[in-house]
Each structure stands twice: as structure tokens, then as C-alpha cells.
């Protein structure tokens, strides 16, 4: 009788523990929902995250970058790439990250999370990781994905310059910028075939989802422009242009040249990006969440 009694006691104890855990989980869920619905968590940029939240997010980001960049092969940096990277850095990175003896612009100083200085980035990150961050950006941080706007050689040039930054003083930084020249213009090459997936990413990098509902693209619940669903079923664009891939790409690039009264801004979309964006929009359907 002793063994069955013990087995019964164990079952009762396990059931009690399970019920207690379930009750705790339900209570935690209700508390979380109350915080969520009550708006108790202050999202103002003047109120920082708790330190443990900041540390947790930062560590998760570091591990994620290391994992996703692990197989990237790094080309050998050359002096020409470093100088090209210096020019690109001043035009695209210095505004938020500053440089040796150069402060970020005022808007960047107030961003939350604040864009970190890159003067020692090469000591904290591997070159392949710097490439991954530069190319793909970081979610919910303000760091954009430069892979849409910069070519592969330009991305690696930025990485090459970041590798030089820890060794530059403020005068050395100014001297390098004085000799850094923009890349030379090369002969035009034929555009590749439209890439639907690249177009989806390009839509996010030109902030299209801030005004439009786009299937397959995460965005806010408030839209000032029409939803971009079932675009292929429309006979005309802006009520003026026949709906073709070329015309849609043109509308994306120069909307005010097509319809001077439109409030849609000209975003400086490249020809390739516009063609890719058009390819994506012409194949989306209402309710699609690919």
C-alpha cells in the first residue's frame, strides 16, 4: 500500500504544481494585458528604457548579427577602397554617428536609441558583421539598410574605412576627407530583370509603408495614401497612365511629373529600384501576407 500511496501523492503534487504554474501564467498574462491596454508603459523618447531592457536588446542584436554574418566572405581592403569609404561615410554616416572630432547632427543626438559612435566599431565588430549591419540595417533602431542605395563595392568600401577609423585622430580624419573623392562615373550597364523580393525590401527603404497599406509589408494602422492592394487590376495609374510595369515604375520615380497636383513626393527612387518595386506591387493580392 505504501508504493500506490506515494504514486498518488506524487500525482497530486504534480497536479498542484501544474495548476499553480498555470495560474501564475494566467495572472502574468492578465497583468501584461492591463499594462498594454492601460498605456502605463511610457513610450516617450524622453524616458529611456530600463537598463536591463537596453542590455537585453543590445545583446540579442549582437548575437543575431554574429549568427547571420557568419558565412560572409570579406574581400581584402585596399587604400582606394578606404578613401572611397571615407567619402561615403561623410555623406551617409557622419550625420548620425559623427567622426573623430566631429559631433553627430542635433537630430541624431536626440534619437532613442542613440546612434553609437563608430570610431571604435572595428574593435567591437568583425568586418563581415559591419558589412551585414551596413547592408541590412537594424530593426527598430533607426539604422537603415544601405544595401538598397549602395552597391556591393561601396558597401565594402564603407567597411574598409570603418576599419581605419580607430587609428585616426581628428586632424587625420580631416586630412583623409580632404583627399577622399567621390567614385568615378562608370558607363551605364543594362538593368537586371525586375526582382520582386528586392522590390519588397525597396518599398520599406523608401518609407512607402508610412503612407500606404502594402500586402506583405509591416506598417502602421494609419495611412494617408490609398492601399496598394490588387494594383494589377487597376486600368490606370493616377487616373492618367495606362497600368503597365514601365508606367508604374515611372509613377514611382517622378509622380509629380505625371500628375502635378499629387501630394505624393518625389523620393529619389532609382530606375532599378522603381522597376523592382513595380514588379512586387503588380503581383500582390488583397490579404497577401507573404
Summarize the structure.
It comes from Pseudoduganella armeniaca. The protein has helices spanning 2-38, 51-68, 79-92, 94-97, 106-109, 121-124, 127-136, 152-164, 170-179, 196-205, 245-253, 255-258, 271-281, and strands at 236-237, 241-242.
Class per helix and strand makeup:
mainly alpha
CATH topology of the largest domain: Cytochrome Bc1 Complex, Chain D, domain 2
Please state how the strands of the largest beta sheet are arranged side by side. Answer: 1-2
Largest sheet composition? 2 strands, antiparallel
Distance N to C terminus: 61 Å
Mean pLDDT: 88
CATH class of the largest domain: Mainly Alpha
CATH superfamily of the largest domain: Cytochrome c-like domain
Content of β-strand: under 5%
Helix proportion of residues, in percent?
40-55%
How many discrete domains? 2
**Quaternary structure of the protein:** single chain
Shape: globular
- Strand segment tally: 2
Radius of gyration from CA coordinates: 26 Å
Q: Regions with pLDDT < 50 over 5+ consecutive residues?
A: none
Any idea what the CATH architecture of the largest domain is?
Orthogonal Bundle
Domain Cytochrome c: 80-166, 194-285
InterPro entries: Cyt_c-like_dom, Cyt_c-like_dom_sf, Cytochrome_c-type_DH
Keywords: Heme, Iron, Metal-binding
GO molecular function: electron transfer activity; heme binding; metal ion binding
Amino acid at each position: 500500500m505504501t508504493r500506490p500511496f506515494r504514486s498518488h501523492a506524487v500525482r497530486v503534487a504534480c497536479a498542484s504544481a501544474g495548476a499553480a504554474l498555470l495560474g501564475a501564467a494566467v495572472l502574468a498574462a492578465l497583468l501584461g494585458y492591463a499594462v498594454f491596454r492601460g498605456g502605463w508603459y511610457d513610450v516617450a523618447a524622453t524616458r529611456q528604457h530600463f537598463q536591463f531592457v537596453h542590455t537585453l536588446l543590445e545583446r540579442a542584436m549582437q548575437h543575431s548579427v554574429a549568427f547571420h554574418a557568419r558565412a560572409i566572405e570579406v574581400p581584402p581592403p585596399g587604400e582606394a577602397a578606404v578613401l572611397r569609404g571615407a567619402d561615403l561615410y561623410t555623406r551617409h554616416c557622419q550625420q548620425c554617428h559623427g567622426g573623430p572630432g566631429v559631433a553627430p547632427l542635433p537630430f541624431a543626438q536626440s534619437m532613442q536609441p542613440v546612434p553609437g559612435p563608430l570610431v571604435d566599431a572595428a574593435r567591437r565588430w568583425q568586418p563581415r558583421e559591419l558589412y551585414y549591419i551596413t547592408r541590412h540595417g537594424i530593426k527598430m533602431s533607426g539604422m537603415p539598410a544601405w544595401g538598397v542605395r549602395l552597391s556591393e563595392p561601396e558597401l565594402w568600401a564603407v567597411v574598409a574605412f570603418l576599419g581605419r577609423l580607430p587609428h585616426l585622430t581628428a586632424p587625420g580624419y580631416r586630412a583623409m576627407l580632404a583627399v577622399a573623392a567621390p567614385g568615378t562615373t562608370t558607363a551605364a550597364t543594362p538593368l537586371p530583370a525586375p526582382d520582386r523580393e528586392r522590390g519588397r525590401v525597396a518599398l520599406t527603404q523608401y518609407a512607402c509603408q508610412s503612407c500606404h497599406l502594402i500586402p506583405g509589408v509591416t506598417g502602421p494602422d494609419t495611412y494617408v495614401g490609398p492601399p496598394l492592394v490588387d494594383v494589377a487590376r487597376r486600368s490606370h495609374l493616377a487616373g492618367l497612365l495606362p497600368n503597365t510595369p514601365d508606367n508604374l515604375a515611372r509613377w514611382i520615380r517622378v509622380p509629380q511629373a505625371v500628375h502635378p497636383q499629387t501630394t505624393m513626393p518625389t523620393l529619389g527612387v532609382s530606375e532599378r529600384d522603381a522597376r523592382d518595386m513595380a514588379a512586387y506591387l503588380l503581383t500582390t493580392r488583397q490579404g497577401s501576407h507573404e
